[in-house]
Fold each of these.
Amino acid sequence: MIEIVNEARCTGCNICVRACPTNVFEAVDGGIPRIARQDDCQTCFMCELYCPEDALFVAPQADRPATEEDAQVLRDATWGSYRDAVGWGPGRRSTAVLDASYVLLTKAH
Amino acid sequence: MTQANARQRKVTDAFVGKRHDVDVLVIGGGPAGTWAAISAAANGARVVLADKGYCGTSGATAPSGTAVWYVPDDGDTRERAKASRFEMGGRLAEHDWMDRVLTQTWDNVQQLADWGYPFPVDEFGQSQRTSVQGPEYMRLMRKRVKESGARILDHSPALELLVDDDGAVAGAAGVNRQTGETWQVRANAVVIATGGCAFLSRALGCNVLTGDGQLMAAEVGAELSGMEFSNAYGLGPAFASVTKSMFYKWATFYDEDGQKIEGAGSARGRGVIARELASRKVFGCLDLADEQVRAWMRTAQPNFFLPFDRLGIDPFTQHFPVTLRLEGTVRGTGGLNVTGRDCTTSVDGLYAAGDAATRELICGGFTGGGSHNAAWAMSSGFWAGAGAATFARANRRAASAALYHTGGVALQETSAHEGIDSAQVIRAVQDEVFPYERNWWRSADLLADSLTRLDALWQQLRSSAPATNAQEAVRAREAAAMLATARWMYRSAQQRTETRGMHRRVEYTETDDSQHHRLLSGGLDDVWVRRHPVANRTHHAPHAPHSPRESLSTAPHRALNGALA
């Protein structure tokens, strides 16, 4: 589930408020968006892809918010790693062009 | 019921909110909805596309990636592609539809390439087009919808359809769930492309998919088909949302002590996993993947690795707990019944496309998702958009024409004071449809047991007070849609006293030739189910392999049919 809007990175552009398909974020006047409905998060990671500042971190657990146990996971939060993996953002090239699914589909069957 | 209710509930001039007058309204902005909008606009229609979430990230495809049933028209390649899933689907697929979808999908994928989708190129310089990456595909589709001139309404769930004096569908009413503002789109034709229903199971990208379109369509009298084929479960790490199953072909499954679980697998061994999960934890490990395969996996599905990387788990060497999440009719095949080649439904002015519609026409009672569903989404969306545009042109309605509300539960005035506790209804429905012993396997006693509670719950909803604000209305309608879906599912499952496709009856483990028909269903207060013949020319029956497993290893073009689950 979405866990962190990084205050140092976020510019308050509110793209995540628009892009989240389950309406998890809420714009805040004069501030950065807040996670208003965390329980509605479907852990699809799309907000990370659409964040131009790499300011969001979605924790891997889909069924519950992070607890004390997950402190390390949050401390190790990687900023923009998914966006980097799909090659979105300035100076990057979409990695769809490297998609080896066609090879795996042949091997899988 | 629709007409009578509708007549009593005229859309009044006192309507406050945004009003759009167009030719075609498309509800849903996934692959099917975006293809429908583009196709309708290309046929000269003024189009609005309303998405509950954000067109481009909404739905099962966007955060995922999907194989496409993309098969060259080359010798007997397409015949073999058709035959490979024909038996698994219980021989309910229809040849005309399979042929049409293969042709249309081929054309649409060429179109994607022309639009600039970056398909990979293989070592022989050949562009490989059997799969697409979700974020890239849907970002491109959003762009093309906008360029087509269609207008997109994001975060704008439709709550109900509107009809005219003749009962023809004439638009929809909804809300913007971020501003709370109401909207009304008056249209001469409507395409339902809202996806299947996965019961808020948190399977990847599926929580937008609660069966909303099927509920709205049923309220105006539309029929469904194949709702017994609704028990697909996605395999993935127990802690994560990533129900992408293809890589588990390279997995071994273990118990807590590290002992291999014989027979467990991602395809035919998934039942073994379901059985084990009923009593103990099951662990997976992709230990059959060599270095080369591991590298290919990273480029094929970057999101597959997110949960593992973030938890510091190496899925190739470490055992991690797995689970099966219900994906209902998203990876199932049941949905709105399509009565014409342009994907019209049994109701005038109403069209259905993608996972909201039945996919039995091309894969019968089984699909691994991806592949066939992706091909169906782009083909049916394309046809529904064109059909809706043509219908709209021939059936123009005056801007002042009287329209009527059709929404029941959560929208209609009742004498009750108490509203719907949506969270409680959702949990109650999940309790009936999630358990493997009720849904992976179906039995007469448990189906009846679940239906007793589900029917009572429906009566309770019917007599509850309407929602008082936008957020509440959206959630209550989702709860009602899930409940309606569960009742069509289990009523249909009761009727099919055999095992066919993904529908498994405990008491009837064999396929019964006398039940080689489809099951249509519908109704809300009173759910009905009836038989419908499969339209196939008998002389054209494909030479089916003895078992699906055999075809997997023998057909050279098998890859093209595979689900990139």
Amino acid sequence: MIEALLQTLLNGAASGGVYALVALGYTLIFSVLGVINFAQGALFSLGGYLTYLFLGGKIGVNGALPGWGLPVGLPFWLALLVAALGSGAVGLLVERIAFAPLRRRGAEPLLSLITSLGAGVVLVNLLQLLMGAEGYAFPQGAAGLAHLPESLLIGGARIRTIQVLLLAISALAVAGLSLWLENSRSGKAMRAVAEDATTATLLGINSVAVVRLAFLLSGMLAGLGGGLIGMSVSLAGPYFGISYGLKGLAVLVLGGLGSVPGAIVGGLVMGLAEALIPAEASGWRDALAFAILFAVLVLRPSGLLGRRQLEKV
Amino acid sequence: MLRSGGLSPTDPLAARRRGSARLATALAGALALLAYLSRSSDPAAQPVRQRGPLPLGAALALTGNANLYGQDQRMGISLAQGWLHNRPHHRAVELQLEDGASDEPSAIAAFNLLIRRGVIALIGPTLSQQAFAADPIAQRRGVPVVAASNTAKGIPQIGAFISRVSAQSSVIAPLSIDEALRREPGTRRVAVFFAQDDAYSTAETAIFQKVLAARGLTPVSIQRTQLADNDFQNPITAALQQRPQLVVISAQAVDGGNLIRQLRELGYRGQIVVGNGLNTPNIYPICQRWCDGVLIAQAYSPELNTPINRSFRSLFAEANNGRVPGQIAAQAWTAYQVLFEAIQRLQARGGFSGVTLAEARWRLLQELLSGRYNTPLGPIHFRADGEVVQGRFYVAQVRMDGTGRNGRFTLVRERELPEAKP
């Protein structure tokens, strides 16, 4: 009984960690701009593909350059970092193309949902053009875990070693981001802009730079998530990040829009909810997870840890 | 004022009725004209070209989840095309290839496009699920379809114009279960996994479970997954708690490959039997060294020692850096070959002379179903309902090489099924 419970907790934590990572990317942008970047799922895919290429993987027969690959593969940790930076850079590009022009014109924030969705679709299509639609798997032993057992037995519950690693990296990334937001000068600037952009600007904070930083970090988080998932499973075509993006969006809402602790708690709740679904109904996992989201929102519209927005009249 | 009986010429009601009648006549005329115009522009109503290559359509999954199969099919068809065109023939065939992607709307769109272009027959689509959506369109338009990889129950029964060269899973699936039980006769605990959102996988798992029941085995765990799933921690740990000795999987290449890998990583060491969705060398890079030992029943063996299979195998290896072909490519070759040979026989008899495309399609269907073919799959022919009759089947085991990225389906058993013998 305890073993089964522990197994459920481990299963939930393993998937919840990645959901939290994706949701944090949304949270950063939502907190500073009050909008949702729908290109986040595409950046997740991009991170997976970039990690694959930096590891020395070759483009498949359906890609634009079949058989092409970097002459030298990087060690996994470096490949993951460079890929996250690459995704962050593309995240910045998304900001310049899909968000900045609308912001300059004072357009409705809702419009950026469409422009970011468009940017995401273009990005995924470009990936498909360059890499083909086939699935890719990272080279065996790429993470340098060959000397470790394939799975670990923790209190009678079994979990894949790669997933423990995935959970640990997600936790480190989340902790690092939280510390940075709390203690660093730029993190405090981001919190100030999130609180009130106009006042923050009057106080001498460069809010445009803060917005760009949010997009860079958000893209990096998505890229990191994509690379980690690619290591754990495989890249099942350019659209694989979209489903994670949607799940991250649900987690964002579940945890509370714009709340960093909410994104973490929401991710874990979503992961646990999925893990609790009985084996016979495992095929209905997504439907049940979203039903839980619906139920939470009915009871608590601002999400688990979200603050109620007060409207000034 | 009261009217004095009858409708006067100026009666507004009568005027409205006359207007309605005129409108109805005009509409009927317009509809008749439209019907005539659409009929005259329908390629099926046009006479078949007497010269030049005959267009043959193929709708394959070149993108999406099933693209791994589609690429192999494209290769198989392209090799058959080159090989057959280099042999003496009466009429050239021009292949028109469209991406049917991996979903039903794309397959329907590809079929519609090819039919509008006036193809003589169609090959495809890649997935059984797509076939159930797209084949009825070809059936309604009277276009013969040869399914190259649809093995679900009921495909030829969609209609008279639908046939297949891919033997249905109910014939093949029991062989791999029997092989697993022959190797480990003490097997009692079986776990079943299947992709519940895939028509083929759900049909195949029903066959697997029926076979298990017939062998006195009740699954200790049945796990439903989805094609887009890639993390199987939950269903696998739930199944492993039941300590299975045999795992039977009905899924497609990417999700199934990931499932096998994670089963092994989570400590499952027993036998794994997989269905036709994983019957492609494209699973090797997904499950890598963890693919090793997987058992699968096949309708094709690269080790079949016939002249046509030797040609197919060497052409495939030449085009694919020495790779050994799988069943999907062999069946695609076969689909093209049977249509090509039927076209040649019909052309030789003057069967395309002075007939409309619709009539030519009907004649081609009759010719196709009445022929006997010597293919890389072995000798085959069709039943009157379009079902393939193939006598020889195989059980193979995946053997991965030292790199863990390449492998092969090694033949472990060959079976002749008397009931299916040509």
